[in-house]
Amino acid sequence: MLCECLVTTMTYPATVQFLYSLQQHGIKLGLETIRALLARVGDPHRRYPVLHIGGTNGKGSTAAMAASMLHAAGHRVGLYTSPHLIDFRERIRVDGVMIPEARVSELVESLRAAATPDLAPTFFEFTTALAFQHFAECRVDVAVLEVGLGGRFDATNVVTPLASAITTIGLDHEAYLGSTIEAIAFEKAGIIKPGVPVVLGRMDASARRVMEERASAEAAPVYLLDRDFRSEGESTADCGYAGMRRRYTRLTCPLQGRFQLDNLACALALIELAHETGVTVPETAVRAGLRQVAWEGRVEVIGQDPTVMVDGAHNPAAARVLADSLAEWRRARPAGRITLIVGMMRDKHPRAFLAPLLPIVDTLILTQADLPRASTGSELRALLADVAPAAQVVPTAADAIAMATRSAASSDLICVTGSLMLVGEIKALFRGCSLSPLRG
Predict the structure, then answer these.
(1) Which intervals hold domain Mur ligase C-terminal (predicted)?
(2) Structural domain boundaries enclosing 158
């Protein structure tokens, strides 16, 4: 059952507009405000055990898999992720169900009162407190939390989890996290807590050294992909897992792409560690949870004839993973053509992002997500003039998908990527629904 909601005087549209207004505070890395706000509402994040998942890429998929397995085991599970694709409420779920609109309004009003008069939380701080409060009042058995940005100063980092995972390390959000792999790894390693075991996914040696040094300083046991646990097989449709104490064969997961094998292994390692602390997850639940997991916007097919795929890749490491998936598609359909629709935020690196993708695609369309901080198609073309001179510019996402569809054969592939915001816009178009005005 969903939590009971009290009568509130604030409408949901007004609530969303208030949350949108918090973006004027920008991104402030630090934990003082979120700790103070949570203390004023009774520290709800201390009322349930937590699994905490960070990393540059893969953390959302890993969180979704872990939550699905826990739910299949009969646990009441809170899942907090970001960003959302279409509806703000996607960020906060209990047992897979989005937080009700009335609940958002009620909790936002109570948190506004708690923050007055001296706290000025950012959007993400406010949303994190909202999630923690909802989970507490819904009496979840366990919460799975995805880190928003970085780790050390991310608002979610006020928790002391049963176990943590850091999936990958790559260049992203350099303005906040640093311009080197080592600097970014240092920020991501900030979620490692004293004595709390940490699962490390696929990363280069320099990032791993940073992680292991932090873990050693915190006396936190480290479990490393391909050393202590691993996935087996070539596809999530039929794969296996060899872990610290558990081993499974013939696992099935609907999330597509070979990269999901690493995420699956990290999720299963987390579940192993949670099981050892008393959050039991039997093999039947592992199998059922993986079989039932859903995670939108990652190598997701949303249309056929031609195939329309969306993928929220927005940094070079994620682009390389997407390139592998597109190359696999082309090998299976050598006569098919690939059209790539790309829109990116202004703080991203389109040349590095497109480097692994351009050799695979036949047509490149540059467009803009409907957000002020998004690059226009013309801005992207100017940055890519020498490496993609034939790129076409279409001002809006709707016009871009219409152009691509008109020129595609039924055997072709249209892939939309470069931004989760753009992916959400395209998915909303295909569903025939409107977007939440708050998508930062």
Answers:
(1) 297-419
(2) 12-292
Of 238, 269, 292, the one marking the end of a domain is 292
- Kindly state whether residues 389 and 288 are assigned to the same domain: no
Rounded CA-CA distance 204/214 in Å is: 16
Among 183, 186, 180, smallest CA distance to 166 is for 186
Domain boundary among 233, 261, 292: 292
**pLDDT score recorded for residue 175:** 61
Query: Encoding tokens for residue 176?
Result: 């906040």
Do both 92 and 237 map to the same domain? yes
Identify residue 424 by its one-letter amino acid code.
G
* pTM reported for the whole predicted model: 0.91
Please, which residues have CB within 8 angstroms of residue 216's CB and are 6 or more apart in sequence? none
Average pLDDT estimate for 24-39: 84
Condensed to tens digits (0 to 9), the pLDDT of residues 380-436 reads: 999 999 999 999 999 999 999 999 999 999 999 999 999 999 999 999 999 886 666
Closest among 386, 415, 418 to 172, alpha carbons compared: 418
Distance CA(425)–CA(376), nearest Å, equals 15
C-alpha–C-alpha distance, residues 405 and 150, integer Å: 37
CA dist., res. 6 & res. 205, Å (int): 52
Structure tokens belonging to residue 429: 């178009």
In a domain? residue 4: no
Longest dimension (CA), the chain: 64
Spatial CA neighbour of 90 closest among 247, 296, 340, 342? 296
